[in-house]
Amino acid sequence: MPDFSSYALIFDMDGVLIDNTPTQARAFQLLFRDLGLTTNASRLLRRLNGMPASKILSTVFTNPVPKKQLEEYASQREFLYRTLYWNKRKPLPGLVSFLEKARAAGFKIGLGTGSGTETIRYIIDYLDLRRFFDAVIGKDDVDHGKPHADTYTVTARKLGIPPERCIVFEDAMLGEQAAYKAGMRCIGVSTTLKPTEFQAPLTVIKDFTEITPAQVLQLLTKQHDAPKPDAQLAKRQYMKL
Fold this sequence. Notes:
This protein has 241 residues and is α/β, with parallel strands linked by helices. Helices cover 43% and strands 10% of the residues.
């Protein structure tokens, strides 16, 4: 029997613990309307989901926008998102059972997200999920958000598990790239992307009814090393949209 306690499962939040990407896109689209922008928010998130909102917003303006103004826009988007999502908060099917079994098996469990502290609370405390996590890392805990490796590197360090024994659950291109840059393997969650749009995941699931903690370690035997990140993947996929 493997020693599950020497491995870690690290979860992104948006699109992994919850299926909220359509609501996130709607909030961005309402903000864009108010700002007189014609950017398609759904297409934008397919390419940049996983980044902090202020970073995503910095890509939609023709001219540079001061950081303080971007943060104000991000706060407006956050208010719209919370209002729209208030009565929709629920875990992805099978998630709670999966976490319970992973905890019982002995896995270390971490959360690595580009969201801030208040947004994390809005989701994981409302859904009573914090009890499952040994470490919770958000945008305020790292110098560089996804697609940089920091989010997952810091999470692994907090868990005390080396990167090669960490498995990341991600729904986004940039998050998958961050996992590979951190030297980790990844399981895709197809709430945002099609299975074929991920680079090199161990497998792709639609929700947590399709996998067990024991199966995660079985998948590692099929991919001994973390894939090399493909920096051009998001650009190529975006051109297909």
